[in-house]
Write a structure and sequence with these properties.
The protein is an alpha/beta fold. 21% of the residues lie in helices and 32% in strands.
């Protein structure tokens, strides 16, 4: 291994692979991926269902099939790879310490770093479900790996808490394997995953879904024997008299994903409390010079195609920084802040440099707070001035929206200090 690299990418999921490929294409000579697993591809390797690549590749692929296309391209570009190795520390000067079974302790320096560690699942402890602590309570992603890679079935009768995409996909997958999914419970009054997964995974297989319901307690001694479900009010408080015992031997949790940012915090990258990921600019550079972030480590995406798109931007930006073509973020650089406003939970990126609009449109990505099941406008404004607007048929918290700032908005963005982003009903 070399002592110094132009770009080092931490993680080899879709964001990390895309970042490494883009860095190579942009002229970075020495590019390294560090991956803690024994193979490239990240979570894609256990996602054997189709639906990947429809937007970016115009093909309907499985997760492993999608990953392999980018693995092949990275290998063809001579991207170096360090597998089965965990990054222990990254300093603000981009000095990296990692260790692995084969490599041992490794220390190296990078001119630019791309953080692409992905995200992790919330567990029972984090949502504080009362009851006993028997075997048979798993996250949906753990069950997915067991079934799709290890060849184990975690149970026979399931209740799934949460209507995230992994939970809905696993409801269908477990049904294929002969299990019974007794119920899916969702504490919110709407599903939190994609509507297409609701149709293809629940409706098509007659799997019951109860909205505004949660698990009040887990029952069982050595193994889960049942869960007690309960309806909740608008403040998520249990409604007395609505309790129901649902016999089952396994409880799967699909209750949200958390960007994996322990390394980011350790090195001093500032984290947005709303997204759980770093504050980034339009090139996915964090507030720390030479440190970029891409994919689910920034915020949780719906589609792998968008993770890939973010990785391509971050990798190109990292290469430009390593080659001296991209400046450090500084106070005197003309950037404007993006701000979530009416019915918007958060906006990424949090900073936009008007100069970026001389090269390409800048995509803003956002999630809404409440569903609107009628046509809406997605708007970016500077005060009362409309900068950009896009029509959508509806807005749902489980489906990310995007808004392109066009190149012609250069002057307006340059004058702005803050762009407020709104999602409002379209009036006739």
């Amino acid at each position: 291994m070399k002592q110094k690299y132009d770009v080092v990418v931490i993680g080899s999921g879709p964001g990390g692979l895309a970042a490494a490929i883009a860095a190579k294409r942009a002229g970075a000579h020495d590019v390294l991926i560090i991956e803690r697993d024994v193979e490239l591809g990240g979570i894609l390797q256990q996602c054997i269902h189709n639906g990947f690549g429809v937007e970016s590749l115009k093909r309907d692929l499985t997760g492993p099939g999608y990953a392999q296309r980018f693995i092949n391209e990275a290998q063809a570009l001579n991207v170096e790879v360090l597998l089965d190795s965990m990054v222990l520390e990254i300093t603000p000067e981009r000095h990296i310490i990692a260790c692995g079974k084969e490599a041992g302790l490794v220390e190296l320096d990078a001119r630019a770093v791309v953080l692409a560690m992905g995200c992790r699942e919330r567990t029972r402890a984090q949502i504080r479900i009362p009851g006993t602590r028997p075997a048979g309570v798993y996250t949906a992603g753990t069950a997915q790996r067991w079934v799709n890679i290890e060849g184990y079935m975690p149970g026979k009768r399931f209740v799934i808490l949460g209507s995230g995409d992994i939970g809905m996909i696993m409801a269908r997958r477990l049904t294929f394997e002969g299990a019974t999914v007794e119920r899916m419970l969702e504490i919110m009054p709407f599903i939190t995953g994609l509507n297409r997964n609701y149709v293809q995974c629940l409706l098509d297989f007659n799997i019951p879904l109860q909205l505004s319901h949660t698990v009040k307690r887990v029952l069982g001694s050595k193994r889960v024997e049942a869960v007690e479900a309960v309806q909740v009010d608008e403040r998520w408080q249990p409604i007395a008299g609505t309790e129901e015992i649902i016999p089952c031997d396994t409880l799967l949790l699909s209750v949200g994903l958390i960007p994996e940012n322990e390394l980011s915090r350790q090195m001093g990258v500032k984290i947005d409390p709303l997204t759980g990921g770093p504050y980034v600019d339009d090139g996915f550079q964090t507030g720390m010079p030479g440190v970029f972030a891409a994919g689910n480590v920034v915020h949780v995406y719906d589609l792998v195609d968008w993770v890939t798109e973010a990785g391509l931007i971050a990798g190109r930006s990292a290469a430009e920084f390593a080659l001296g073509k991209r400046p450090h973020p500084s106070a005197d650089e003309k950037t404007c802040r993006t701000k979530a406003s009416e019915n918007v939970r958060y906006v990424v990126p949090q900073r936009v440099n008007a100069e970026a609009l001389t090269q390409r449109p800048v995509k803003l990505q956002l999630r809404v707070l409440h569903p609107i099941e009628e046509p809406v406008w997605v708007e970016a404004r500077n005060g009362d001035d409309l900068i950009a607007r896009q029509a959508e048929r509806y807005a749902r918290p489980g489906e990310m929206l995007s808004l392109d700032l066009p190149q012609k908005a250069y002057d307006a963005v340059r004058r702005a200090e803050t762009l407020t982003v709104n999602v409002v009903r379209r009036r006739a």
